Amino acid sequence: MNKKLVVGILVVFLAVMTILSLQGITNAGSGRKLMGSSVIGVIEINGVISGEAGGGLVSGYSANAMDIMESIRQAREREDIKVVVLRIDSPGGSAVASQEIARELDRLREEGKKVITSMGDTCTSGGYWIACSSDYIMANGATLTGSIGVIMQLSNLEGLYEKLGIKEEVIKSGKHKDMGSATRDLTEEERQLLEDIVGDSYDQFLDQVLKGRAGKITQEKLLEVADGRIISGRQALELGLVDGIGNYYDALAQARKSAGLSEDSPVEILNGTGFWKSLGLGVLAELSEQVPGHFMELRYQ
Amino acid sequence: MSVTESIYGVLFEPVTTLRTLAVQKPYGRALLIFLAVTLLSLIFEQALMVYNDNEALEILPANAVWMFNILGTFLSVLLLLVISGLLSLISEIIYGKFNAGGILVTLCYASVPGILGPPIHYAFSLAGQEWLGSILALLAMVWVLILQVIGVRESLQVTTGQAILIMVLPGLFTLIMITSLVVVVLSGMN
Fold it and tell me: What are the structural domains of chain A?
């Protein structure tokens, strides 16, 4: 009986301590340990911006809009987070996903929290769209940015299908229902319709840049460079597309300055690195990006 | 011998318990206990690292930390198997006595007090008495070492001094090898 009691006490002690330990580990991960102090929240946007729901084993290295929006909401709800630094290293991606992220950032700023963008190697197209929803953009001199434009790519696999002996039968309710089909050429009318969509999205992109960079770049000046070209960080500074040249730590310093935080204010990364990348298997994640999710998609890329 | 009896025995009646276990050799149960001790220790160690704001946690992604932990557990089991065989071999060479299975089982059970160190350390850290926690954790380690010596002694039926010698020899041999290597390399450089 005594033996059972002693071992029982030991087991209970271990169980309690295991729960406490796991709580401690989890709380540190979600940043609760830093509650009470003024924190700089860092949100990383790495890879192609995608709107697909996360959770897949190989979806680690794309920037998933749902995960990023969740982190932005977390930053909005947490009182200890005074300012957010967006670390963007992305060539862009889904137009809708970029818009969704930018909208969440706008909501965050409406709450009175500042957003500072730090550009990594690349911050083009959809990445730049998102950056325009921040209060200050910091680029490195050699950062590739710009690429303001919209692209829609369609494949015509008719010849391949013929070789494979595949013939598609289409039954449709309207003449444009199979617009963008991979088994035939676009008609002139369809091409015009798609060009209108691309044009409208392009106008939205211009509006976003003009809104985000108000007073820093004129419409005329923007139109000169908004032809899809990429530019360096330094060129972007001259054009007024970014506010300063500096690295990640300069962006953190800017964040502290804009929020009036002390130099030792803690930094917390609100979204982590992808699972595969953390295991050194980023190739697997990149492979997953090669698999087309949708047949027809507007991309700021 | 039930699990409760064996755990209680290792903690409070180590000599007779380890002697019995060395004969009975309940491999599966022993390895399960060792795994449980190692895994729980890793959780407590991780919590301590978080509590102490360990830099490794900032450098490494969380997933990688857990991956290292799991890898560490796997390696510790592997190391235990190797060490059990090695100690038995040394004993056979020197004293003509071998019992690798017994050593494996007793070393597994000897790790049991080790499970107390990290949680006690963590509990005292949370209570603001980290220094006391560190000392108690150190004592738990010493307790494990003593049990390991008893385990080897009872498994091989040798004296305490002989058991210590058997356990120290691999380390001593490695030290001599490294020293010799360093001397050879340094003399080659001159």
Answer: 36-151+217-300 (3.90.226.10)
